[in-house]
Amino acid sequence: MCRSIKTLRPPVLAEEATEEEIRAAALQYVRKVSGFRAPAAHNQEVFERAVDAVTQATAELLDGLEVRGAGARRAG
C-alpha cells in the first residue's frame, strides 16, 4: 500500500478528515495503482474520474464508520 496515505479517522485524526485530505489520499491511491504520477493527456480524463470515484467512496466509508472508543489511544 502507498505509505503516504494516512489514516483519515479518529482517533488517528483529532477531527474529521477534510475534503482536501480525502482527495489527497484518493489521488495517492490512484497514482499508486496506475503507476503514473501524472497521466498523459490521453489518460487524464479516466485518471480524474478514478480520483473522483475513490474520493466519493472514501467519504462514504468515513461517514459510515462507527468508531468505538474514539477516546482511546492507538497502540503501536
UniProtKB/TrEMBL annotation:
Superkingdom, taxonomy of origin: Bacteria
InterPro entries: DUF2277 (IPR018735)
Pfam family, one: DUF2277
Protein name per Swiss-Prot or TrEMBL: DUF2277 domain-containing protein
